[in-house]
Predict the 3D structure of the following.
Amino acid sequence: MPDLLLELRSEEIPARMQRRAAEDLRKLVTDALVERGFLYEGAKAFATPRRLALHVAGLPPRGEAVREERRGPRVGAPEAAVQGFLKGAGLASLDQATTVTDPKKGAFYLAVIERPGRETLDVLAEILPQIIRSFPWPKSMRWGGASAQPGSLRWVRPLQSIVATFGPETETPEVVPFSVDGIAAGTLTYGHRFLAPGAIEVRRFDDYGPSLERAKVVLDADRRKDIILHDARDLAFARGLELVEDEGLLEEVAGLVEWPVVLMGSFDESFLDIPAEAIRATIRANQKCFVLRKGGSDALAPAFILVSNLEASDGGAAITAGNERVVSARLSDAKFFWDTDRAVSLESRLPKLDSIVFHEKLGTQGERVQRIAALARELAGSIGADIGLADRAARLAKADLVTEMVGEFPELQGLMGSRYAALQGEHPSVCAAIGDHYKPLGPSDRVPTDPVAIAVALADKLISLAGFWSIDETPTGSKDPYALRRAALGVIRLILENEVRLSLSDVVLPEAFDLQPAGRRVVELDLSGGLERVQAALEALPPDTDLFADPRVQDLLTFFADRLKVYLRDQGARHDLIDAVFALPDQDDLLMVVRRVEALGRFLDTDDGRNLLAGYKRAANILRIEEKKDGRVYDAEPDAALIASAGEPEERALADALASARTSASLAVAAEDFEGAMRALSTLRAPVDAFFDKVTVNAADPALRANRLALLNALRAATREVAEFSKIEG
C-alpha cells in the first residue's frame, strides 16, 4: 500500500509549540483523508526545531466510488424547499431526481448521488495546501514581499521548503503536485543548519529518517530526549555525580537541538552558599542547563550539564567555557539577591504589599493577606493547628513577593519566604506553612501535612475562590485565567488526604460576603421557634442586612461538587454513586461525601445491596406509573392500622422492617457510621423480596392500593437516608 511523506521545513519552530504542532498536523491530514473516505493503516508525526514531518502508511492508491441516496421534500413542497434540496444534492433540476411513493407519507423526491473514486494523489494535492494555509499556530507571522498581499501565508516562522511524496515502497513515489505561496512541493530537504547544510533528496519515509540522521538531524523528539538523558547520566556518573532530572527542561531542550551533544560545565564552589532551589532556577531559566548533585547526597555539586547543537572541533571546550561565564554571572546576581534579601526581615516587607494591587476589584496584596490570616485563624481551630502560628504564617506567606530573589524568579515564591523565615528564627511550622501554602499545585504535587500549613494553604485557596466568585470572575469553558479549578482541586486534596472535617458553606459563605460591597451581610434565622420568635428576630436585625443568600455562593459550592466528582472519577469511583450522594441535600463536607460514596460502593457490591437496588427500582417504577396515572403523589406515611387489619403478612413484615431500618440508618448517618447505615438497609432485602413475591400492589380495594403505594414510597424514603438510589445505574 502507498505511503505519504510530508515535511514542512521552516526557519524555526519554538520548542513549546513542537509537540502540539506535530499532533495537529497528524490529526488535520488524517481527518481530512477519512472524511473523504480514505482509510489508512497508521500515521505518525515528528517535530524538530526546523521541521514538521508526517508519515501516513497504508493509503489506497485510489478512493472507492460512492453511491448515496438523499431523500428530498415531498412532491408539491414549497419552491424554497425544492431549491435547497437541489443545491444540496448537486442537481440542476428535478428532472435529475426520481419520485418515490411511500404508502404512509406519499410521494417525495429522491436524489441518487454517485461519485466516482478519485486518485489519492489528487485528493492530497487538494487538502494539503488548505491545511498548511489554515494551520493553527498559537502565534504566526508573514514575511517577505508576499506579506503585503492579502491572504498571504502565515506560518510560525518563514516556511522554507515542502517535501510531499506519495507512492508504494516498491516503486518510485510521485511528488504531490501543489504549491503554497510560491513554495512548490518537491523531494529536497536539508540537514543540520551548520553540520550538514546541503540539500538531501528523499522519496519515501524509509529513506527520510536515515538520510536526516546522516545529515546530523535526529527526527524523533523522544529519541533526542533519550540521548540527552542517557548521555547526561553517563557523564555525571563518570565524575562521581548524579543528574538532577527535570522532565520539563528535558522536553524543552530536546526541542532546541536537532543533534544533541551533552557537555559538562562547572562554577565556583562558593556559589553553593545560595539555596539550591535558587541555583537550579538560575541555571535552568537562563541557560537551559541541568544541575548536578554530589553522589549519594542531596547537596548540589558545583557543576552543570549543558546540551549543544554542535559537534565542535575542540570537543566543546569553547561552548562549555562560554556557558560557564554566563552561569557565573547569573549566579553572581543570585548571590547578590540572596545577600540583599537576608538583610531585611519578612515582617518589615509587609507594608510594601499594601501598594501592590492583587486585582482591581479585590484590593491589594496587603488586604488579601488580612483576609487569608482571618480565615487561617478560623480554620486552625477546626483542624487542630496552633491559631497563633497559623496567623503568623498567613501574615508572612506573601512577604517574599517583594524580595529580589522572587522578583527575578517568580517560581520560587513561597520557597524563598520559607528560607528567609527560617533564617529569622521563625517557628518550624511557620516556615513550613510559608513554603507550602501554594501547594498542591497539581494532581501529582505533594500535599502539606503540617496542621499550620494545611490551615494556611486552605485559607489561601478559599479566599481566592470566594473573592473571584464574588466579582463574577469564574471559569468558563476552557478558560480559567486565575487557575480556580486548580485551587478547588487543591482544597479537595488538602481536605481528603489529611482527613479534614470542613463544611464549605460555613467557610465559603461568610468569606464570599466579606468581599461584597460594604454593608451587605447574610444571616441565618432559626425558623423552628414559631412565627413570633421569627418576627422578633427580624425586627432585631440591622437595616443593612441581606436576608437572601447570593446565588453565586451556591454556584461556588456547586463548582466544588463538580471538581470533587472529577477527582473521584479519576480515583476510580463510579460516577452514578457520586451523583447519588450529591443528590442529597447539604453535601458540603467533602470528607463525608467521599466516605459515603465508598460505603455505598461496597454495599452495592454485595448480594444484599444488588437485590435491594433491584427492589428499589421495581418500587420506583410502580410508583412512577401509578402516580402518573392517578395524577397524585403517594408521599403520605402508610396507615399502620390498615396494614395491621387488612394487610398481608409480608406487607406487615415490610412495614415493620422499613420503620426499623429507616430509624437505624438515620441514626447511623447522624453518627457518620455509613457502613452501619448500609447494614441497616441490608435488612430490607428479604422483606422487600417477599412483598413483591406475595403481595399485589394494585389491590381492588382503593384504600388498600393507596396504602401499599405509600409503603413503596416509604421504601424510597428509607434509601434516601444514605443516597438517592434513583441516580444509581443497574
Notes: The chain has a mean pLDDT of 90. The radius of gyration is 35 Å. The longest strand covers residues 106-115. Residues 317-342 form the longest helix (26 residues).
